[in-house]
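Provenance

Sequences were taken from public entries as deposited. Structures were produced by running a predictor on each sequence independently, with no templates supplied. The record for Harbinger transposase-derived nuclease domain from Cinara cedri is shown for reference.
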Amino acid sequence: MPSDVLNAEKSVIAGQNKLSPYVFVAEDAFPLSPCILKPYSGHQNKGSKNRTFNYRLSRTRRVVENVFGTIALIFRVFRKPMLLQPENVEKAVLACVYLHNYLRKSSLSKKRYTPPGAFDSEQLDTGTIERET
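Predicted structure for Harbinger transposase-derived nuclease domain:
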């Protein structure tokens, strides 16, 4: 898979100063590629950079899975295979993602769509995870 498959501009990650490319977060079963982040295989020594990377990647995957779970709960189209042409699947997914982001940001709907405690948040300065309030 080419590294520019997403055709997206690099952006700054929260808490960082440098531009980073968009990537896919994957499990170990996926092939290694410049645009796929997957965990280091095997046992990693406690405190090693590889173990820290694996831990953070695992947390990232959990966030993605939680968001998808929320989206699937609200937008039932994700509960079964979509019997649509590929271009219409793309439109349906994008529409749901846009609506999800809007509902999360809108002061009128945020507390109903994702009530306090629905997501955890990480304090960037300490790395601790706290329940969102």
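The beta strands are 11-12, 19-20, 24-25, 36-37, 120-122, 129-131.
The helical segments are 49-74, 86-105, 110-113.
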